[in-house]
Amino acid sequence: MSIDQVRAYFGFTKMPFGKALAPSALYKSHGHQEAVARIAFLVGEAAIGVVTGEVGSGKTVAARAAVAELEPSRHSIVYLPNPAVGARGLYAELVSRLGAEPRFHKAALIAQATSLLAAECSERGRRPVVLVDEAHLLDSSQLEELRLLTSSEMDSANQFALILIGQPLLRARLRLGSFAALEQRLALRYVVPPMSPEETAGYVSHHVKLAGRADTLFSDDAVARVHQAARGLPRAVNNLARQALVAAYAAKAAIVDDKAARSAVAEMSAE
Ligand SMILES: Nc1ncnc2c1ncn2[C@@H]1O[C@H](COP(=O)(O)OP(=O)(O)OP(=O)(O)O)[C@@H](O)[C@H]1O
Ligand SMILES: [Mg+2]
């Protein structure tokens, strides 16, 4: 059995519950919209903030959606997907994203990053927006570097937005005494909530519609089971819903009923 057979069986134009969605095709759950609005606020205020949420809750998707709405000529977006890139990594990455050759020595590198950020504003009229994803992976020295970067920003007129995105652990780490200075500078902390049962139902039908089917394909009890097993987390919903489609296909069922959902849950939890 191939995914293409499953796709053809249900008459989908493409397999639903994929991850490559355009920002305009995203499901606008409450948490998603709130996260996007908070990120936009931080950008507008040139402030520092933290967005956390469980694995697969939609943090990165929300960050991408927020960035997509920014006027490109007025912002300079630096998205750092993974800070676990070594000791020099963060600043070196920042500097090269801003179009310069990173200096070798750490102190020079930090000064270079600071002045490049300043030049974006003063010379190009663009506000730098730095997004650090998977920020729970920042080690202590990287957090200290961020503190330095943000305090130099505070002391001058130069403004940039810094958004730290990561798993719930990130908030706990920032609360530790040594990062109090950074923690105190946070304009907001937002926790992306899981979807409610109603939202999961809306999410599932949204994906089914995007795949080209306007009718109801998942039974209510199947959706309820998927929601419960996935705890309302979009990535887990995707995985279970795809698996349930496969189970329904294997059973030659016309819709995804609770039996298919149950078998998907059993299969996913057996992994
Ligand atoms: N609003 C949404 N509309 C449609 N799909 C979504 C939405 N939010 C999340 N998803 C789906 O859920 C998947 C997981 O989302 P995302 O990668 O943003 O989670 P995350 O919180 O960044 O997870 P991690 O902690 O693993 O980085 C996405 O690949 C996407 O398929
Ligand atoms: Mg992510």
User: Helix/strand/pairing class, anyone?
Assistant: alpha/beta
CATH superfamily of the largest domain: P-loop containing nucleotide triphosphate hydrolases
| CATH top level label of the largest domain | Alpha Beta
What small ligands are held by the chains?
Answer: adenosine-5'-triphosphate, magnesium ion
CATH fold topology of the largest domain: Rossmann fold
Strand order of the largest sheet: 2-3-4-1-5
Spatial separation of the terminal alpha carbons? 19 Å
Number of helices: 12
* Domain unit count: 2
Could you tell me the number of beta strands?
Answer: 5
Order of helices and strands: HHEHEHHEHEHHEHHHH
Overall average residue pLDDT: 91
| Shape estimate | elongated
Major pleated sheet: 5 strands, parallel
Residue ranges: pLDDT <50 for 5 or more in a row?
Answer: none
Helix content, binned percent: 40-55%
Characterization of the model:
This protein is of the alpha/beta class. The chain has two domains: 3-18 and 195-269, Helicase, Ruva Protein, domain 3; 30-192, 3-Layer(aba) Sandwich (Rossmann fold). The chain contains twelve helices and five strands. The chain has a five-stranded parallel β-sheet with strand order 2-3-4-1-5, sandwiched between helices. Helix 6 (140-155) links the parallel strand 3 and strand 4. The model has no long low-confidence stretch (mean pLDDT 91). The structure holds adenosine-5'-triphosphate and magnesium ion. Magnesium ion (MG) is lined by residues 59-60, 133. Magnesium ion binds next to helix 3.
